[in-house]
Design a protein that fits this description.
This protein has helices at residues 7-24, 37-43, 48-51, 64-84, 86-107, 118-134, 140-155, 161-179. The chain contains 8 helices and no strands. The radius of gyration is 16 Å and the shape is globular. It is mainly α.
């Protein structure tokens, strides 16, 4: 019998692979970061809505940005994937990334940019809240975790709270639609 491959582990592998690529060629970020919406429109580089999730902060020797995102992706992704299946998990992930990126691009200041998978990760938080509510699980600890992470995003400079909020709402909406089918 063939073993089922995990979409969560696949995403983590690809994102970490791009992080290593950034370590080798720091200029690659220039091709993948997310600029403000006006810049997306004028350049036609709409692919950046998705490639933003492949880039992570390289400003310190320790990859905190990548580590926190991948830890959350593994924790939430494996749960969602085991409950809803690989296809629905991937739909939620990419809708969350799309919603987070569009929200970020729309509200980014002139000459601002965004990087990271946290919009998609926040979407997984939104999805897990919808799933837990649907199945009667206790939401308290997850709500506290989401709340604390939102506060961090709003108070620490350089964290794109716009992507977090957009992703959270996108993931919750995607999960709500998918679990009622």
């Amino acid at each position: 019998m063939k073993a089922q491959r995990s979409a969560t582990i696949g995403l983590i592998t690809v994102i970490c692979g791009f992080f290593l690529w950034q370590k080798i060629d720091a200029n690659i970020i220039n091709n993948f970061f997310l600029p403000p919406l006006a810049d997306l429109q004028s350049s036609g580089q709409w692919y950046r809505i998705f490639t933003v999730g492949l880039m992570h902060d390289q400003t310190s020797d320790l990859p905190y940005h990548l580590a926190f995102n991948m830890l959350a992706l593994h924790s939430l992704g494996t749960q969602i994937e085991s409950i809803l299946g690989k296809s629905k998990f991937l739909v939620i992930f990419f809708i969350s990334l799309l919603a987070g990126s569009l929200t970020s691009a729309y509200f980014l200041p002139f000459n601002g940019y965004s990087i990271g998978a946290s919009g998609a990760v926040f979407g997984l938080f939104g999805a897990i809240l919808v799933i837990y509510k649907r199945y009667g699980a206790d939401l308290k600890s997850t709500l506290i975790t989401v709340g604390l992470n939102l506060v961090i995003g709003f108070t620490i400079p350089g964290i794109d709270w716009r992507a977090h909020v957009g992703g959270l709402l996108g993931g919750a909406l995607a999960a709500k639609v998918l679990i009622h089918k």
